[in-house]
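Hi R.,

Here's the chain you asked about this morning:
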Amino acid sequence: MKSAHSTFSNMPVDSIARMSVPTVNPSTPVFEIAALMVKHNIGAVIVVRGIEPVGIVTERDIIRRVIVAGRDAKEVVAQEVMTSPLISISHDRLVDEALEIMDNNHVRRLVVLKGENMIGLLTERRLLRAKIPYKPTSQNKK
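And here is the predicted structure, written out as tokens:
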């Protein structure tokens, strides 16, 4: 009999990745990126040149490279604060492989590729939610 962990470990990453990946171009002002993150309740966007993913801008990047640095979020653009190169994983790889890649590269997000095309974004949070589904209790409800 398989344990819940082994079933989770054998899941392909595309079964839990966010499939609509918010993207911006390299010249998008950080102010607009932050507004997009708030509007969609997300913590990162992928920076694309044409259709090619070239970097990622996270909330942490904005805090460190714009806010704490005292820079103007309306003047700074994505390519100045993005993290590059992107760390990616093929859509058919397994969850355990994704966790290992994240750990080895000290990242919380992986771009999911099918061939050369970006089809999703896999986050640490999505992995945790898939592994340990959240079930609200009466104490959590307000």
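One quick note: The CA atoms of residues 43 and 57 lie 9 Å apart.

Cheers,
M.
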